[in-house]
Design a protein that fits this description.
The chain is mainly alpha-helical. The chain has one domain (2-290). It has helices spanning 2-25, 30-50, 59-85, 88-91, 98-110, 116-133, 141-148, 150-174, 180-201, 206-211, 215-241, 244-251, 254-265, 271-290. α2 runs antiparallel to α3 and α5 crosses α8 (150-174). It is globular, with a radius of gyration of 19 Å. The protein starts with a helix and ends with a helix.
């Protein structure tokens, strides 16, 4: 039951973070936001370094963690691009597909079981996704959207990357026995390094980004950073205890709260249909949990 409390806490914090991110992204670019968030995520993660048993941390585990954070930074940026350019009630429900992908790859790479019920859950995820993107009477419209929409390409790419990073999370915590304190501290350090490199590659001046940001946005970014560190840490602790697909399926219930509450806050379109689609997708995730 401990993993459940950790996972649902991560879900609630994640929903709060997503709604807040959408609000801030009206006024700032996705990459700039990712870089600034990474700064405060590291600052708030500094206490983790004090609790690390460095004798138990291998160089190889840190190398794999850094590779994992390259994928994670790219995935986070893609999600921020999608949230910035799409309605939150249309972008976030697609992230519920992650547990299905993780379950498949965890089965292939980690040997975790995959039952018929779990396969049924994945089909429900696909059905909910179809309903989410359905517009008008054109039965092929959802497929056309995924094929033609750049923002949906961001989501698909992020899903694939998050699938890889969550498999790596389990691998690092289980096989390398990298403790959560070390995981959290070094992960935030590596993410800041990655986003700093990305900022420089895109010709931006990181000092100007920091000094020219509006004070009101700073308050929001600090708040989001605290929430982000909270949901990442509780997720890692849950993954350490329970199967990775199980934790992610529970965590993705955050999408329901973010869809309904965020959709109302931002006056988004077709909210009832999107909510029903999200419920179907979460139902598929529940099948992945209990069977």
């Amino acid at each position: 039951m401990e993993w459940f409390v950790l996972a649902i806490t991560s879900a609630l914090l994640s929903a709060t973070a997503a709604i807040s991110q959408k609000k801030v992204l009206f006024d700032i670019g996705a990459l700039e936001f990712s870089f600034l968030i990474a700064i405060f995520n590291l600052l708030f993660s500094l206490p983790f370094f004090l609790a690390v048993d460095y004798s138990a941390v291998s160089e190889l585990s840190l190398i794999f963690l850094y590779i994992k954070t390259i994928l994670g930074a790219t995935a986070f940026w893609c999600v921020m691009l999608a949230i910035k350019n799409m309605e939150i009630s249309g972008a976030l429900p697609l992230m519920v597909l992650t547990p299905g992908l993780v379950a498949i790859f965890a089965f292939m790479l980690l040997g975790e079981a995959l039952s018929n019920f779990e396969i049924g859950g994945m089909l429900m995820l696909l059905a909910g996704t179809y309903l989410l993107e359905r517009k008008g009477n054109d039965l092929l419209q959802p497929f056309k959207i995924f094929w033609n929409s750049k923002n949906h390409h961001y989501i698909i790419f992020a899903l694939l990357l998050f699938t890889a990073t969550n498999i790596l999370d389990k691998w690092l915590l289980r096989d390398f026995r990298l403790e959560p304190f070390a995981f959290m501290g070094f992960q935030q350090l590596f993410l800041l390094i990655n986003f700093s490199i990305m900022i420089l590659l895109f010709g931006m001046n990181p000092i100007n980004l920091i000094t020219n940001l509006d004070k009101k946005l700073w308050r929001w970014i600090i708040f989001i950073s605290v929430i982000t560190v909270g949901y990442r840490y509780t997720q890692i602790e849950a993954v350490k205890i329970a199967p990775v697909a199980l934790v992610l399926a529970m965590k993705r219930t955050s999408v329901f709260f973010a869809t309904v509450i965020g959709g109302r806050i931002f006056n988004e379109h077709h909210l009832l249909r999107k909510t029903i689609a999200t419920i179907i997708m979460i139902g598929g995730a529940i099948l992945l949990i209990y069977f």
